């Protein structure tokens, strides 16, 4: 997973960090915090870190400003690639949400979700998929707090990528849509990449639902980065393999599609799905068909078509066998459908014949039957 983004606009969102958040803010703490943040935004990294430390010194008890200061220190150290310092500030951050006995304070749901957000970004950097799954599931168990939409978006996006890697396409579609809405609400540029992931999941789930029918997504349909994905979706829906491959290779759309590592990772699966759908439609009318004909229609070589056929047969998508000597696909003949026979009356007609035969055999065994020449 990619797109590590520890942006700061979540601090402008109104959140309730603790049950005492309605009390009057400490003016000195607030001023010191924004002084530190101003130093960070002007590029004075060391000075900003020292100023955030001053916030922690001024705060007598663990509270909102200290949590924000620790979160900013974690972000600053991350962006500065000071990973040891980042881990240290990430740990003081975790402890600020723990009870005296060292357990997580479940009353601090907002802060716990923000910590999970940061952990997700660090685990993404390490490509620790096992921990990402743990963090996503853990986030679902936290029912308290009002997290910033950016935090919720990052968690949902993590879930969408996890579900997609597990080929749970419907769940991925749901999570990506929720992530997109959260990023859109937060005004985050991540909404564009997440919308592309939504279109990707939509195609992989073989859904007939147009993601741009939703009120939230409709305004972005004509964006340059998005239009490449919508064109890809249209080619997918019409089984236009040549069009699909042209869009992927087109320099105008290449960066929007193949420039994203996550999308690039799944394009091959999507192309396989498009080819499979085209293949099944092509062979339905035939008892036998040349592999060369299929390869020509699907714009692939004979090796690729054979590999695709083997997969389709193994997954029971088609009921056929391959004649490798003559390079033919032979459809297996099926037994008559008994349900269909009953519906058309043939089964009842056969049953009547059987009943008539039984009656003849019965009368032939009777003594009087011989008298009448049976």
Topology:
Layout: H1 27-41, H2 45-58, H3 64-79, H4 83-95, H5 109-125, H6 129-140, H7 149-165, H8 169-186, H9 190-204, H10 224-237, H11 241-249, H12 251-257, H13 261-283, E1 288-290, H14 291-298, H15 302-314, E2 320-323, E3 328-331, H16 338-344, H17 346-365, H18 367-371
Antiparallel strand pairs: 1-3, 2-3
Task: Give an account of the 3D structure.
A 3-stranded antiparallel β-sheet has the order 1-3-2. It is mostly helical. A hairpin with a 4-residue loop joins strand 2 (320-323) and strand 3. It has a domain at 285-331: Winged helix-like DNA-binding domain superfamily/Winged helix DNA-binding domain (Arc Repressor Mutant, subunit A), CATH 1.10.10. It contains 18 helices and 3 strands. Residues 288-315 form a coiled coil.
Would you summarize the structure shown here?
This protein is mainly alpha-helical.
Task: Tag the structure with descriptive keywords.
374 residues, mainly alpha, Arc Repressor Mutant, subunit A, three-stranded antiparallel sheet, 65% helix, WH_DNA-bd_sf, 26S_Proteasome/COP9_Components, PCI_dom, coiled coil
């Amino acid at each position: 997973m990619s797109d590590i983004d520890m942006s700061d606009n979540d601090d402008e969102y109104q959140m309730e960090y603790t049950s005492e958040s309605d009390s009057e803010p400490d003016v000195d703490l607030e001023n010191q915090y924004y002084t530190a943040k101003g130093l960070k935004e002007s590029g004075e990294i060391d000075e900003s870190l020292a100023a955030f430390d001053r916030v922690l010194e001024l705060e007598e008890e663990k509270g909102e400003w200290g949590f924000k200061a620790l979160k900013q220190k974690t972000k600053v150290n991350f962006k500065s690639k000071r990973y040891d310092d980042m881990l240290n500030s990430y740990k003081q951050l975790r402890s600020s949400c723990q009870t005296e006995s060292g357990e997580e304070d479940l009353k601090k749901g907002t802060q716990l979700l923000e910590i999970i957000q940061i952990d997700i970004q660090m685990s993404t950097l390490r490509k620790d998929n096992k921990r990402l799954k743990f963090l996503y599931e853990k986030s679902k168990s936290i029912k308290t707090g009002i997290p910033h939409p950016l935090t919720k978006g990052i968690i949902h996006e993590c879930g969408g990528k996890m579900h997609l890697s597990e080929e749970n396409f419907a769940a991925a579609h749901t999570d990506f849509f929720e992530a997109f809405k959260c990023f859109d609400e937060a005004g985050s540029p991540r909404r564009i990449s997440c919308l592309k992931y939504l279109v990707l999941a939509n195609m992989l789930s073989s859904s007939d639902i147009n993601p741009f029918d939703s009120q939230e997504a409709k305004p972005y349909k004509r964006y340059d980065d998005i239009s490449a994905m919508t064109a890809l979706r249209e080619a997918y829906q019409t089984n236009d393999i040549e069009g699909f491959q042209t869009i992927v290779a087109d320099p105008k759309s290449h960066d929007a599609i193949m420039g994203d590592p996550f999308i690039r990772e799944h394009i091959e699966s999507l192309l396989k799905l498009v080819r499979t759908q085209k293949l099944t439609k092509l062979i339905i009318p035939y008892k036998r068909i040349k592999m060369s004909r299929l390869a020509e229609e699907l714009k692939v070589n004979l090796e690729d078509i054979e590999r695709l056929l083997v997969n389709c047969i193994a997954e029971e998508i088609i009921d056929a066998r391959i004649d490798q000597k003559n390079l033919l696909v032979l459809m297996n003949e099926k037994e008559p459908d008994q349900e269909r026979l009953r519906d058309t009356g043939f089964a009842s007609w056969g049953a009547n014949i059987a009943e008539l035969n039984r009656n003849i055999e019965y009368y032939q065994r009777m003594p009087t039957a011989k008298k009448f020449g049976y």
